């Protein structure tokens, strides 16, 4: 299985998936921390991949998603965006319905 295949499988297996630096309990950069804090306010669950422990995914994902930085939030296999997009969508109320329709736990 190629790295791209693995990424596509992760996206298909997880309705809401955050590729981030660190873990939700211990984010390793401010942008990942901001994304996790924003997602916490929704009360919805999500899967995550710590790209610091998955160097092949960290290297390949930007070319798959066409998004150069981390974190990256995917809902229903589609890229939503990074930290600033997540925070803005929480503030304008547009992220919550997307999470609910995706079946975030």
Automatic annotation (TrEMBL):
Keywords from the named record: 2Fe-2S, Iron, Iron-sulfur, Metal-binding, Redox-active center
Q: Which SUPFAM superfamilies match?
A: Thioredoxin-like (SSF52833)
Q: Does the keyword Iron-sulfur apply?
A: yes
Which parts of the sequence bind [2Fe-2S] cluster?
29
> For glutathione, which residues are the binding ones?
21, 58, 70, 83-84
Q: Which domain of life is it from?
A: Bacteria
- Tell me where in this chain the Glutaredoxin domain is found: 16-80
- Kindly list the GO molecular function terms attached to this UniProt entry: 2 iron, 2 sulfur cluster binding; disulfide oxidoreductase activity; metal ion binding
Which InterPro entries does the protein's record reference?
A: Glutaredoxin, GRX_PICOT-like, Monothiol_GRX, Monothiol_GRX-rel, Thioredoxin-like_sf
Task: Write out the similarity annotation.
Answer: Belongs to the glutaredoxin family. Monothiol subfamily.
Q: What is this protein called?
A: Glutaredoxin
């Amino acid at each position: 299985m190629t790295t791209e295949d693995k990424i596509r499988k992760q996206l298909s297996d997880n309705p809401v998936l955050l590729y981030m630096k660190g873990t939700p309990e211990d984010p390793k950069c401010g942008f990942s921390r901001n994304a996790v804090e924003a997602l916490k306010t929704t009360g919805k669950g999500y899967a995550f991949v710590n790209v610091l422990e998955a160097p092949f995914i960290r290297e390949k994902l930007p070319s798959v998603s066409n998004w150069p930085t981390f974190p990256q939030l995917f809902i229903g296999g589609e890229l939503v965006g990074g930290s600033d997009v997540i925070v803005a969508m929480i503030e304008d109320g547009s992220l919550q319905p997307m999470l609910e329709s995706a079946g975030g736990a």
